[in-house]
Amino acid sequence: MSNSNGWALTARLISKHFGALGDRVSEAIASFDPETATEADRDRLADTLRSAAQKLAQARAAFNKERDDVVRLRKLIETDEKATGTLAERLAAGQISEATINMFCDELEANKNRLPQEIQEEADAQAYMEELQKIVDALSQQLADFDAAAKKAMQALAQAKAQRDLQEVRADRQSQLANLSGMRGNTSALNALTKRAQQISNEAEGMKIVSDIGQRPYDQAAEIEAIRKSVTNPANGNESALERLQRLSNKAPATA
């Protein structure tokens, strides 16, 4: 059987085994776009993948059975072929009847004639299984692409929300600063308090100046009196013993 005919048979097998699922698989693979698909699209694709995976499991089991049938049939034919020489000797020696030999030969010929069909069934089962494997791989890749695109979209959404929150914070701070600026420029109460503080400071400074002027004659008189005392009472002139002790101890004499 040629390769093209084999693929045609495989296509018929897939159509037979898949039924409506085959159309769903073809449509899902052809139309699914991970960048624009919705979660519902992803769920439908995942459901199709599960169905295809179940078919693949069945196809693997069928292929294993067909392969085992071919292995057993070949082993049986090989064993019977080896037995032909022994059977011929026994037939010549009259140890076995021709009817038995003919029955044996009929079974051997039937098995040999059946072997190509078994081999073809094994090949068809393998082709069907491999085609299903390709479909499952394609669907798996589509799901992986969707999940990657979804993750990327979620990251972009999170970044956009973070930028939005940042801009909201910045706008709020600008609003607060604008309010504070308005208070500094337009609050009459703050201006009145500032002017009142300056006025009180000026009044205090004026009072200090007046007090200093009034105190000046007293300071001058005290200075003159100290000069007079220093002239009339020179240091250590007629100092008594008590006054001397007080002076040396840095204590001024007590006044009456």
Automatic annotation (TrEMBL):
Residues 42-69, 105-170 form a coiled coil. Residues 229-256 are annotated as: Disordered. Residues 230-239 have a biased composition (Polar residues). It comes from the Bacteria. Keywords: Coiled coil. This is PspA/IM30 family protein. The lineage of its organism: Bacteria, Pseudomonadati, Pseudomonadota, Betaproteobacteria, Burkholderiales.
